[in-house]
Structure formats: C-alpha cells, structure tokens
Amino acid sequence: MEPIVFDLNALNINSIMPIITVLCGALFILIIDLIKKQDKQFYVLVSSVVLLISIFQLIDINSVGRGFFDVILVDGIAIVSQLIILVASLLFIPLALTGGRFKEYEFAEYFAFFLFMIVGFQFMVSSDNLILIFLGLETGSLALYALIAMHNRQKSLESAIKYFTMGAFAAGMFAFGSMIFYGLSGSVEIHAIKGVLEANNFENLPLVLLGSSFIIVALGFKLSMVPFHTWTPDVYEGASAPLAGYMSIVPKIAGFVVALRFFDFLVAADNDVVYTLLWISAVATMTIGNVLALVQDGVKRMLAFSSISHAGFVMTAIVMGTTEAHAGIFLYWGLFLFTNLGAFAMLWISRHQSTQFDIRYDHSFTKFAGMVKVSPIGAVIMGVFMLSLAGVPPFAMFWGKIYLIGAALASDHIYLAIIMALNSAIAIYYYLKLIVFMFLKDPNQNDGTVYYKSGTFSLKVILAIAVIAVVLSITAIDPLLSFALNHVDASGF
Strand pairing partners for 189? Predict the structure, then answer.
C-alpha cells in the first residue's frame, strides 16, 4: 500500500488566510471567556482587530487562482465581496458599545457567533463548490439565528424561530438543486457543471430548469426576493436595529455572489426560461417591495421593505449579464452599505425603553414627528440617509441607481430600465414621508429620552463615517467603479 502524500502546495494557505484569521478570532474569544470573563469593550476590540487583520490579508492577495485543494476560489469577485463583508462588519461591531441595557453584548458568545457568521459568508463568496457554499450558508445562517434570539426583546425569539424555519426550507431547496446538477454533470463545482452542460448543449433541459428553480427559491429566501420575502419585515422588527441593518447588507451580498456565479452561464447561454424567471423575480421584488413600503406605519418595517426593493434592483444586474452590470452590483451594494447601516444606526440611537407612540412599533413615524426641534443634528443626519436611499443627487445611492439604469440601457434592456426608473420615483415618496414627519410636524410630548442628543464616541465615529461616505460619494465613484470593473473582468464575468 502506497503512503498518502500530502502536498502543501495544494493547500495554498494564503488563499484562505483571511477566513482562518476570523475563525481563529472567534475561537480565541471563546477560550479567553473560559479562562476569565471579560467586559464587552475587550470583545469589541478583539473582534475589530481580527477584522482589520483579515482586511489587510485580503488586500495583500495579489494573484488569483484556487486554494485549499481547489475548493477555495480566489478571484476578483471573491476579493471585492469579502471586502464589503468585512468593512460592513467592522462598522457594525462598535455599535455594541452603545447598548448598555441590552444583555446580549455582555456575552462572549455573541461576538464569537458574529465572527463565525462572517466566516460562513466568506466561504459562500470564495468558492464555486456547491457543498462548500452550502456549508458557508448554513454556518452563517445558524450563527445569525442565534444573534437574533439573543436580543432581549419580546419579539426576538419569535423572529429567530421564523427565520430558522424559513432558512431550513431554503437549505433544503439548495440541497435538492445541487443534487440535480450533480446528477446531470457528475460534479458539484459550478465551473465543471457549466462545462458539462454546455458540451451536452443542455440536452436535459427539463432537469436543468428544475434544478435552477430549486436554486432560485433557495437564493430568493436569502435575498428576500418576492415571493420569498415574507420573513423579512418580521425578522428585522424582532432584531436589534444595528443587526437588522447588518442583515440587509452582508447576507445579501453573499447571496448575490452565489447567484452571479451560478446563473451567469445560464443567462449567457440564452436560456429563455431561466432568464424569464430571473427577470420576473427581479421586477416583482423591486415593485412589490416598494408598494408595501408605501403603506408601513413603522420606520424599521419601511426600511425592511425598502431593502427588499433594493435587492430586486440589484438582481437586475444578473439578468443583464454584462461585465458592466456585474460591476454595478458591487458599486451599488458598497454605497448601500454606508447608507442603510447609517439609517439603522440612527434607529439604534433613537431607541427607547418602551413603545411610546404606537402599540406595536418601536419606531413609528409618529415618534419622529418634530425631531428637528428636539434633536436637530440627528434629524439632519437621518434626512441625509433617507435622501440617499431615495436616490436624490448628489447622495450615494443616486450614483448606484443611475449606473445600473445606464447598464440596462447599454445592454438593450429598455423595459427593464423604465421599470427601474419608475420604481426609483415611487420610492421617493416613503423616504420623504419620514423627512416630512421630522421637519414639518410638531414634536410629540416625551420624557426627553426618545432622542439621544449625544451618543458614545464609537457611535459618533460610525455615523460620521457613514455621513461622509454618503455625502462625498461622488469623489469616490470613479475609483470604486474602476476597482469593481477590474476585479469583475479579472474573474471572467
């Protein structure tokens, strides 16, 4: 019997170091907690340092290829998407310092779960192996269920259970779809599946469509695509405001990358059924998300439906199938990162011990009436985020929306561009609704604690970064777009 030879070159440790660093950080927090309990400032510091190290390791990668025995894919898309995940996480974690009365931040497990979740999403965007994508999806999702449940609000456990139930259903759909494509191609790697299907000229088209339908359902849940969006407003409402904002960004960029890798060759092969399914899903998601946001009485639920609409808007880039549109995914979501996380951070700073103005909602529109007279700086900052989400120039989201609409026109998707423009116009109404409440209505009587006139230093820094990024985004559009285009082009999309 010949001895097994272990080839260290096949390991290519540099390809997986950004992920290993975050994983080791999570394990380190758990070990330290076993030795001696620490305060949350220590856990925030450790988590932030780990994320910074991972970012520098990611930037230091100067070659593309495969690693970890060819299951890790190091390409431009993996690098850009991991950067978005890590930067969003780095902006999120200091918000734990502002939650004095929320007990989840006192537990080391909260920060360990948070880092485990990041590892899962990093695996999702750094592989085209369906098994590893599935493991990443479940690792990230299971940790996220726990983070939601740890929030000490009455609705949090209900939200976590609802998210878990829907997540289990989506995981099953992904497994069924992967099984079908494995049966068709004999491989679980997307590039190999692509090669076999194209070589056979998609001769088993009914099975290809069935497998694609299962994958669309699975990713539709993760991306809050209609009709798989029903969990979103309830789960966001039960989660803490910062975690809800984080959920609207990081899990979705991971889902977009998987959808891009999987459906790109099906769209490019002129598969009319898959193209039509994606087209209808994207249009329905942006439109229905907008319509439902119009009738909400709670700001957090409005932002939840708004994030559904934004996901549909970005999904159009996969429908277009061009390099410019694919780069637009990362430009748009990078700008959305600062805008939406900032908006949810403002909900965090305006939290209150009890619902004072509405029986159901913590953040009703009525609560923000006359905010400019009670907390003028807070009202201006929140107004900037709303104008950006509405796509009003010169704020950040305007550039993301105009670029994707331009990409639709350039690729002859005229009707899609018209629908995108109409939805952008509709969205202005419900964002301006909050601005009207803040600036044009009289303030409600309160005990002086509904709006915090000053936050902790970490919160001020995060909000300052978000506001500067949103207001001065025009100065960074060209370098960001060039960066995204170069990395997408290098990935062969």
Answer: 129
- Give residue 401's pLDDT: 93
CB 293 within 8 A of CB 427: yes
Residue with tokens 């207001």: 471
Residue 54: strand, helix, or coil: helix
Distance between CA atoms of 413 and 106, rounded to whole angstroms? 51
Q: What is the mean pLDDT of residues 13-31?
A: 90
Q: If we measure between CA atoms, which residue out of 180, 213, 214 comes closest to residue 197? A: 180
Separation CA 481–CA 125 (nearest Å): 20
- Contact call for residues 92 and 117 (beta carbons, < 8 A): no
Q: What percent of the chain has pLDDT over 70?
A: 89
Measure the CA–CA gap between 158 and 148, rounded to whole angstroms. 9
The structure tokens 């899990």 sit at 251
Cβ atoms of 428 and 405 closer than 8 Å = no
Which of 254, 178, 264, 194 has the alpha carbon at shortest distance from 221? 254
- Both tokens of 414, joined, read 């005229």
Q: What is the distance between the alpha carbons of residues 224 and 261, in angstroms, rounded to a whole number?
A: 18
Give the pLDDT confidence of 231-273 residue by residue, as tens digits.
Answer: 888 888 888 888 888 888 999 999 999 999 988 888 877 778 8
Q: Which residue is listed with tokens 């964002």?
A: 431
Question: For strand 65-67 and strand 72-74, is the pairing parallel, antiparallel, or unpaired?
Answer: antiparallel
Residue type, 53: I
Q: Cα(121)–Cα(140) distance, rounded to whole angstroms?
A: 6
pLDDT at 367: 80
Q: What is the DSSP string of 187-232?
A: -SBHHHHHHHHHHTTTTTHHHHHHHHHHHHHHHHHHTT-TTS-THH
- E strands present in 34-175: 65-67, 72-74
* Residues contacting 203, CB < 8 A, separation 6+: none
CB 318 within 8 A of CB 436: no
**SS3 breakdown of the chain: % helix, strand, coil, rounded to 5?**
75, 0, 20
Residue 284 exposed, middle or buried by CB count within 10 Å (0-12, 13-18, 19+): middle
